[in-house]
Write a structure and sequence with these properties.
alpha/beta, Rossmann fold, Histone, subunit A, 2 domains
């Protein structure tokens, strides 16, 4: 069976995935499909670094800003929606380009993971109640003890996913990692070429992260966070990435510079976990943002993809 081709661009936050995706799409006639677990939510464009109209440069983008922060959304739901979107892009005669840094999402699509249908259980209510009383940290700590592979990619802001991972384990006796390992019997109908962005000198990436946070603040992150806290459920808003680190400042209990320093530190830690996750991919084409000039990155990526697209499936 001839499989349709899909390009994938991954890497840590602030590595330039979005810009590279647009450049590749313009060169190869593609459309972007976001693989970011936070960009799916509307009302959070600055905190989640959703590309602006200027940044998309006329390239169609999908699975961005379509969901309320109150709505539940699983990796399985993303896989189904992403697969449907890939098919629609292919039917238009365009190249689907999956771009993002959420490893769980990308794994589910590339490996065609079959998910157990675990309905909502009373366990979820118990875990949600515990999270309300004690915060997310004890739950993440518990998940780390029973399923360190899944926990390694989750942040304290991922309260819903932490609860879901624990719920699945307590309901089935199997961790999400065990289920993923046992759920790849059916090959994907697509073939994938994965390009990864990295930095040989980690300080280069960390400097980009710091500058991105500064730019987000200049673009109005504080105002966005304040409006979000006012409009959304307190528990959800308190865990929103990019917001919760600023909450103490907005509450008047901590200086802004301390909150910004915390946001930068947590973002750097997240980027490190992303790199660790993607290094598991055996056939990834790595491009170093500190070794390859910015103007040459797109040319390198396009060359890799042209070779891939020219190969007989």
């Amino acid at each position: 069976m001839n499989k349709a081709s899909v390009a994938v661009i991954v890497g840590p936050t602030a590595s330039g995935k979005s810009a590279l995706g647009v450049a590749v799409a313009k060169a190869l006639g593609g459309e972007i499909i976001s693989a970011d677990s936070m960009q799916i939510y509307r009302g959070m464009p600055i905190a989640t670094a959703q590309p602006t109209a200027e940044e998309t440069d006329g390239v169609p983008h999908h699975l961005i800003g379509f969901l309320s922060p109150q709505d539940r959304f699983s990796v399985a739901a993303y896989q189904r929606l992403c697969t449907k979107t890939i098919t629609a892009v292919l039917q238009r005669g365009k190249l689907p380009i999956l771009v993002g840094g959420t490893g769980l999402y990308i794994d589910a699509v590339i490996r065609n993971t079959r998910f157990l249908d675990v309905p909502d259980t009373p366990i979820r209510k118990q875990l949600e109640g515990r999270a309300e009383q004690e915060g997310t940290e004890p739950l993440l700590s518990k998940l780390q003890s029973i399923d360190p592979q899944t926990a390694a990619f989750l942040h304290l802001s991922d309260r819903k996913r932490i609860i879901r991972a624990l719920e699945v384990y307590y309901s089935t006796g199997k961790t999400m990692t065990e289920q993923r390992l046992q759920s790849h019997d059916e090959e994907s109908p697509f073939r994938f070429c994965v390009i990864g962005l990295t930095a040989d000198d980690r300080d280069v990436l960390y400097d980009r992260i710091d500058r991105r946070v500064d730019q987000m603040l200049e673009n109005g992150l504080l105002d966005e966070a304040q409006m979000f806290f006012a409009a959304e459920d307190a528990a959800t808003a308190a865990q929103a990435i990019g917001y919760k680190e600023l909450k103490q400042y907005l509450d008047g209990t901590a200086p802004l510079d301390a909150c910004v320093a915390l946001l930068k530190r947590e973002t750097r830690r997240y980027a490190k976990r992303q790199l660790t996750w993607f290094r598991r991919y055996p056939e990834i084409h790595w491009l170093s943002i500190d070794r390859i000039p910015q103007e040459m990155l797109a040319a390198k990526a396009v060359a890799v993809l042209q070779k891939f697209l020219g190969e007989t499936p």
